[in-house]
User: Which sequence fits this backbone?
């Protein structure tokens, strides 16, 4: 039972909803060019989800897909995402505040 519980993460948001996420330690890390989805856990965007495309500085301004928000790997959020896994919570600084995001999926 303890082994199974170690693979479960509980996330509670401001609306008192409880999400249960099964952690998959064998998931591939996020790499340059990957697309995925994150959920902001705090800050002004808390609860919002974002479909992203992680791009190099050279491709950031030229790549276009209306279904994804381009994120520069050199940005604070991009740097936090690289090498992370689905179901990880990562943190980055924005306007002198720490922002936490949950990586929901990686495509």
Assistant:
């Amino acid at each position: 039972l303890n082994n199974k519980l170690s693979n479960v993460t509980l996330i509670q948001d401001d609306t008192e909803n409880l999400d249960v996420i099964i952690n998959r330690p064998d998931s591939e890390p996020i790499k340059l060019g990957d697309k995925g989805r994150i959920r902001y856990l705090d800050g002004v965007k808390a609860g919002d989800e974002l479909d992203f495309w992680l791009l190099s500085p050279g491709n950031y301004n030229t790549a276009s897909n209306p279904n994804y928000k381009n994120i520069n790997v050199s940005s604070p959020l991009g740097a936090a995402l690289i090498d992370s896994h689905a179901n990880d919570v990562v943190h980055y600084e924005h306007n002198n505040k720490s922002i936490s995001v949950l990586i929901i999926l990686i495509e």
